[in-house]
Amino acid sequence: MNRQRDGGKPFSLVVPVHNEAPILSDSLSRMVGAFDAIGGDYEIFICENGSTDDTQTLIRELEAIHRPVEAHFLPTANYGLALKHGMSACAHDLVVLLNIDFWSVDFVRRGLPLLEEGADLVIGSKVMEGSTDARPFMRRAITRSFNALLRILFGFRGTDTHGMKALRKSRLMAIAEACVTDRSLFDTELVLRAERAGLRLVEIPVDVREIRQPSYGSVVRRIPEAIGNLMTLVVQLWRA
Question: Could you give all domains of the chain from N- to C-terminal order, each with its CATH number?
Answer without folding.
Answer: 11-239 (3.90.550.10)
